[in-house]
Amino acid sequence: MNNPPHEARKVMVLGAGDIGRRAFHELAQSDRPRDLRLVGRDEEVVFRATNLARFCAIQRGYAPRVSHALTDLRDVARTAEQIAQFQPDVLFLAASYQSWWVISTLEESAFKRLYAANYGPWLPMHLVPTMKAMEAVRQSGVNPVVVNAAYPDAVHPALLAIGLSPDLGIGNVANNVPGITAAVADELGCPADGIEVRLVAHHYASHRLSRHGNSGPAEMGLGIRVDGRDVTAHLDVPALLNRLPERYRRTGGLPGQAMTAASALSVLEPLADGRAARIHAPGAGGAVGGHPVTLDADGTFEIVLPDGMLPEQADAISLSGQVQDGISEIREDGTVTFEPSSMAIMKEELGYDCPEMKLSEAEDRALEISERFAAYRSRTSATTAAA
Questions:
Q1: Beta-carbon contacts of residue 189 (< 8 Å; ≥ 6 apart)
Q2: Within a domain: residue 352?
Q3: pLDDT in tens, 318-369
Q4: Nearest CA to 156 among 18, 366, 318?
Q5: 208 — phi, psi (to 5°)?
Q6: Per DSSP, which regions of the chain are E strands?
Q7: For 165, which of 24, 136, 190, 281 is 20 to 30 Å away at the CA?
Q8: Is there a domain that residue 373 lies in?
Q9: Which residue range forms the structural domain that includes residue 348?
Q10: How far apart are CA 252 and CA 209, in angstroms?
Q11: Distances (CA, A) of 86 to 3, 130, 271
Q12: CA–CA gap between residue 177 and residue 200 (Å, rounded)
């Protein structure tokens, strides 16, 4: 990211699903100089989404520079060509073979049974498209800051083994920071902009926080500053967190992805505009779990822990959440072993059993999960209809 401040930085959004379209749309609603390109595989979807972003921006008095292009992530060479042609400073990967919310569209009892397996066993569905996109980045010869939306807590450390980890993730840990900030502001009667939350949590713990007000069997780390002073010890933190699913409850499911999009923008907008920021990001630099991060104007970043927390303590927190999410270990070569209890549910419900997965096996595993899930949806829907 070496562009002079007056030049528009180039941001490519790769993936035109819900999160990709939301982020692209919001990035266009700005008077900052940005050159934006939305890339997807469905020409009609990408074309309409690009025009919608442009027209909404014009309606609000902006004149964005937007464009679109087509690729399929399974075609690594073509994706590399698109990246090389556009030369993005920032690349937002918003692609998954199956988004997290899809299982919530199952018949209710089937959803609850499958949901109990947690997120880890679904890793191949997020790892494979990210891996292919990163292979395309490598082939392109371009060196953008890469931000990934697909399960960064586990995808990034797995891909770090082969030098293909994206730089930063979005969502997950970040999604709870605004609620905690609001709770502290209301408790202390002070403006939210003077509050700095530092939260260390894996996807599992951050997923639980907004729903249950605690991290369950997983550990988490939380530090709270007001006007630069650490006030964590002066607050009843468990009581504050317990309010998240009550007084501070918010819309969830697919409509609730507005929160994830906002978390994405908290990372993408500073990168697009070349400004420093304090953010929260999962998978920063290939790390397991999510952390507070300081982002510099040149796109470099650094994990900044709560006051008094050591790096090894943060690592232990993240690994405790990883296990609860259904992943026992991510080895140095990228091989992933899954928790037996989580995989037992996948075997019972889908007939899918994968105790261990090498990176070279991930694509076949993703295809298997996709086929088995489609059959499961059909089977459970038919059972419900018959009843």
A1: none
A2: yes
A3: 999 999 999 999 999 999 999 999 999 999 999 999 999 999 999 999 999 9
A4: 318
A5: -75, -35
A6: 9-14, 34-40, 65-70, 90-93, 145-148, 168-169, 195-200, 221-226, 229-230, 277-282, 290-295, 301-303, 327-330, 336-338, 356-357
A7: 24
A8: yes
A9: 332-386
A10: 13
A11: 14, 19, 17
A12: 10
86, 12 contact by CB (below 8 A): yes
For 167-200, the pLDDT digits (tens) are 999 999 999 999 999 999 999 999 999 999 999 9
CA dihedral 260, 96, 99, 55 (to 10 degrees): 50
**One-letter amino acid for residue 111 of the chain:** F
Which of 199, 171, 172, 203 minimizes the C-alpha distance to 183? 199
In-domain check, residue 74: no
User: Both tokens of residue 11?
Assistant: 């941001």
* Secondary structure (DSSP) of 165-182: --SEE-SGGGGGHHHHHH
Q: What are the structure tokens assigned to 96, written together?
A: 């998954």
* Overall number of domains in the chain: 1
Residues in the chain: 387
Q: Assess if residue 236 is contained within a domain.
A: no
